[in-house]
Amino acid sequence: MLPKFSHLRPATLREALAALDASDARIHGGGTDLVGCLRDRVFTTERVVSLSAIPELRGIAATGDGGLRIGATATLTEIAGHPAIADRFTAIADAARVVASPQLRNQGTIAGNLCQKPRCWYYRGDFHCLRKGGELCYAYEGENQHHCIFGGDLCYIVHPSDTAPALAALGAVCRVSSASATRSVPVDRLHVPPSVDPRRETVLEPDEVVTELVLPAPPAGLRSSYLKIRSRNAWDFALAGVALALVFDGDIVRSARVFLSGAAPVPWRSTAVEAAITGQALDAATIAAAASAAVAGAEPLSGNAYKLALFEGLVAGQLEAIRG
What we know:
The protein has 324 residues and is an alpha+beta fold. The protein folds into two domains: 51 residues, 2-Layer Sandwich (Uridine Diphospho-n-acetylenolpyruvylglucosamine Reductase, domain 2); 225 residues, CO dehydrogenase flavoprotein, C-terminal domain (Enolase-like, domain 1, 2-Layer Sandwich), CATH 3.30.390. A hairpin with a 5-residue loop joins β4 and β5. The chain starts with 5 loop residues before the first strand and ends with a helix.
């Protein structure tokens, strides 16, 4: 059963920001994560502020410099089916297309997918874990087959978003507003690793709202993709995933941005894979080196060493696909 709360549906962004500034409130975008968190008592709130009636937070449109602007409440279905995204920012369309189920993609928003809470069963269950203010991460010595192999300092969650690695790989920037200020946060700096603060997922303050995502114009020669491996071919979160944004000069990879999902408490940038392929043609030797680099330095837990082979195979397969 959901706890009691008041519900506010402002018509403008200014009204929404004023409501967040004046009260201990939670933002409601699509609600696909919010409702579950309230039901499971991950957190409580006295007020929910809906963003669904604010026109300026919607839409997908080209920018004057050849980039793209995606409104914070654009749904994952809209993003997956948008022709400009599919053609020029393919990794984002790939990622939006594999989130959850069709019903949830119809409701879920891009900003909500970026800012969702962890899916760790200890965090979502009746455990006073470190992330909820306790002293232990129960996954470290418990059931951890879905947990992280990188970056697991103190808390061993994996970040649940599919779109975050794709957006980070393509250099997307979040525009963030409060009642008193506006700022820009690159997606690859949005999420907070547990080594910095094990009780926060993002750098956003309680009174701040993501209003839009801005993608720079894709450079000539850009190819991008996203693929994840999951237990079932619907609903499930990534056991392993990879977002690629590679700029080719003929057959040579001139620059690369590679982010992993299902690997770490934040979208995990694999600088080792980037180094293995930059300046190289994607021949068999380079791809094999990149696959090995994908798991260099990994620290699997007792139940998730299988992820090493998943990431090696996934990176190799995606590099073979993108070179074509």
